[in-house]
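User: Could you check the structure of this?
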Amino acid sequence: MVESNYFQVALSSSLVVFGFNGKQLLIVTEKRKKSPFKRAPMLPSKMVLPEESLESATNSLLKSIFCETTENHTEQLKAFANPYRNSDGRVVNIAQYAVLRYAATQLKMNSNYQWCDLEDLPSLVFDHDEILTFAKERLKRRVKRRPIGFHFLPKEFTFKEIHTLYELALRKKLDKRNFRKKLFSSDLLVDTNKSVTVEENNKPSNLYMFNTKEYEKLTLKGYDFSFK
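Assistant: Sure, the predicted structure tokens are below.
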């Protein structure tokens, strides 16, 4: 085979951006700009230039979505390389996922993108549903073994918010009493001695924040957050 044939493959990167608004687990989508499937929903994606690193491509994509650099937690997922996955030609996709604070993005999000409820999402183009499924499983594993809530939640949050986040990420109902007992036994949370009135029942709820030192320790060594 002629050696030049090996260089007729493009490289792209798609990004699964997770956020949490206190009630729903969300991802960012965009509308495809050209045919086929023009205006169909897809994951934010870009072609990777020959001299561009994947890290640089991911940062560039995040900046195009949120108009400026956004604090986040990003990980590489895997390569999606079906020869016929993209109608434009042979494109190998190195997918990434990012977790960030939803509230911090609201005033600076590019109008070409939108947050969508993960539980009410239409089918995505190409193999982006497969990428999303893989990302959801990765998030589920991370939530079980790492205190990932720091990247989702505001600095101060209610017990209900963190309970809802874990239920959505793990995709299962969690007994509140057992969840509270296990969470507080980990020394992860600090009571701020402040409260906020919750709209649903018009009652005050305590506000908590993460114990940064304990959070960093558990991030490094891991912890069983499976809440069976």
